[in-house]
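Design request, tokens follow.
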């Protein structure tokens, strides 16, 4: 049985022309389907759980934008800057401060081949200004390449803080954090608020497959150095079927063991950029946010359930999920977030969730763990623990040329800031055709 859910537009993987596309249900799975008059039909598995896909379909709520965009010329996705067709602002600005890296991973989508020249500090200042123009005090992610190969990374961080950004995270593989025991402290002193640590799994077979070498000890040492420097770590696994999709529970267990320095886990299902020798990646090579949520429910011994995950605020519902869990002294996670049964306006829901998160978590654990005497003392202890032992579990699915949905792209609020001063939706920025040709160049 085949059923079209809704229509949108996409790109042809061969010629980059804008073409019509549909989300279709086939055997209770959602496929992204499109046809180019010249290059034929393309069909890609999108979400393996069609019911969940439909349940999660909601009107988009966009991030605030602080100035109008530039004039539309060729139309989305060719005028990113942001253009005035774009529907949101910037919630996370990605600043690529180098194109060099100290690892060479086969799945990396940073363009490290033309890696000779790093942006200057003046160019980085322009990037910060662009982020501020479109996103105000948005979250800044210092990325690359591998940002820690820059000897002046601390200057980059200090500049961001001086310009008024309240949250700056450093996206790193952890190699330098592990090698230099005082490096985490230096980054923190310069203004880093969070280490966004690539962390694909809690066993070395996974690193050998994805990154070409054993890295678990490096990750552990990096985390230990962050713990001593008291800077929080977000673990960021790239999730790949037949590599680590079966090990998500192990990653959550590792995160629990390493709280409170580990603040959360951010899963990113693999997406495909660069040159493809075959026509396209197969459905077996793909996983989606719905698979991640299903596997988390399966692999965490009942601690996580699909109903604990909610579409992330300010994102298209099919781009990202988020959730919060409290870790009890007995070492079990208790959900703070939970999907609402009754449909309310999303903004109302978000507010209500925030207001209720604390009491919900309290009452949820109270049944099994609270002593009957001394509620206020208990409450005080609990509050203190809740502050340090809350784990944020989230996921974000990036689009590639096979599943890029231009209407989702138009609402995107994760932008790469180019050194020419434009803000380009992250998925448009990294997208390549099947020959590996990029839609955007950053230099
Ligand atoms: Zn075509």
């Amino acid at each position: 049985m085949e059923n079209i859910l809704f229509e949108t537009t996409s790109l042809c993987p061969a010629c980059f022309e804008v073409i019509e596309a549909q989300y279709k249900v086939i055997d209770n799975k959602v496929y992204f389907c499109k046809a180019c008059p010249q290059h034929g039909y393309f069909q890609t598995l999108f979400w393996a759980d069609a019911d969940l896909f439909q349940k999660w379909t909601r009107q988009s709520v966009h991030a605030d934008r602080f100035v109008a965009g530039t004039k539309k010329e060729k139309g989305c996705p060719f005028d990113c800057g942001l253009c005035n067709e774009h529907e949101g602002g910037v919630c996370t600005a990605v600043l690529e401060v180098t194109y060099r890296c100290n690892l060479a991973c086969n799945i990396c989508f940073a363009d490290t081949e033309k890696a000779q020249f790093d942006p200057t500090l003046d160019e980085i200042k322009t990037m910060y200004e662009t982020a501020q123009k479109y996103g105000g005090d948005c979250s800044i992610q210092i990325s690359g390449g591998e940002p820690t190969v820059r000897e002046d990374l601390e200057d980059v961080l200090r500049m961001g803080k001086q310009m008024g950004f309240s949250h700056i995270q450093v996206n790193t593989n952890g190699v330098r954090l592990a090698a230099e025991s005082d490096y985490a402290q230096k980054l923190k002193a310069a203004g880093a608020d969070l280490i966004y640590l690539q962390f694909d799994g809690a066993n070395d077979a996974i690193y050998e497959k994805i990154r070409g070498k054993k890295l678990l000890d490096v990750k552990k040492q990096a985390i230990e150095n962050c713990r001593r420097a008291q800077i929080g770590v977000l673990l960021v696994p790239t999730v790949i079927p037949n590599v680590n999709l079966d090990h998500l529970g192990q990653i959550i267990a590792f995160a629990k063991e390493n709280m409170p320095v580990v603040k959360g886990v951010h899963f990113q299902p693999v997406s495909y950029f660069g040159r493809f020798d075959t026509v396209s990646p197969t459905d077996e090579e793909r996983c989606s946010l719905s698979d991640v949520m299903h596997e988390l429910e399966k692999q965490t011994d009942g601690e996580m359930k699909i109903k604990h995950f909610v579409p992330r605020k300010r994102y298209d519902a099919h781009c990202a999920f988020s959730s919060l869990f409290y870790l009890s002294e007995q070492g079990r996670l208790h959900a703070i977030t939970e999907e609402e049964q009754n449909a309310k306006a999303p903004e109302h829901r978000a507010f209500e969730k925030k207001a209720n998160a604390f009491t919900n978590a309290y009452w949820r654990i109270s049944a099994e763990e609270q002593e009957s005497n001394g509620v206020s003392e208990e409450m005080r202890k609990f509050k203190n623990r809740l502050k340090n032992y809350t784990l944020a579990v989230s996921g974000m699915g990036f689009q590639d040329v096979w599943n890029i949905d231009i209407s989702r792209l138009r609402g995107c609020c994760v932008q790469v800031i180019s050194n020419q001063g434009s803000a380009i939706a992250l998925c448009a920025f990294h997208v390549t055709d099947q020959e590996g040709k990029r839609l955007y160049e950053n230099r």
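Comment from the thread starter after seeing the answer: thanks! The radius of gyration is 22 Å.
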